[in-house]
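Quick one:
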Amino acid sequence: MRKVLGTALLMVSFTCVLAVPFSDAFVFTETRSGNPAIHYIRQTEEDRFVIRYTHSIHLTDVIETYEVTDDSRIRLLRMEYEDLAIGMPGHAEEGETFTAEDGRYTLAYENRVLDSFVLFVADIDTDLEFRCGGHSYDLKKLLERGSSYRFESRKLSLLELLKGVNMNGG
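Output:
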């Protein structure tokens, strides 16, 4: 009886270790799949990250700068871009600051905080890059083109780390 209880306790403990979230990561979860796999980049001490993409119409770079809050939410700090035409704001709303200098526009946000957002990886040959911790990740190569991904910062369990796709290259 002791062996059975000991084995059962060991199995429950092992299962708990596998399921307890412990590792901070940037997580990309495909949104249209019935059984979505997660792709992740393990976070470093650096809480800021950048998404740089080439606007599909203007064909100029847009740089969005974010930071992870203490409660693992995402704060949009600013957007920088070169064109004011389709899809790009030309003025500030409440809680924003808009500046124009040397042909570049910057829209800074006072406190735009999100739990997550959806990132579409278009099937066109333009850049989509994620930068954090001194590294750059080409999302067009690492994620499936034509797919949408929910992006969030959260802790992953050992089981999720083993089942997911590590985009750090390990």
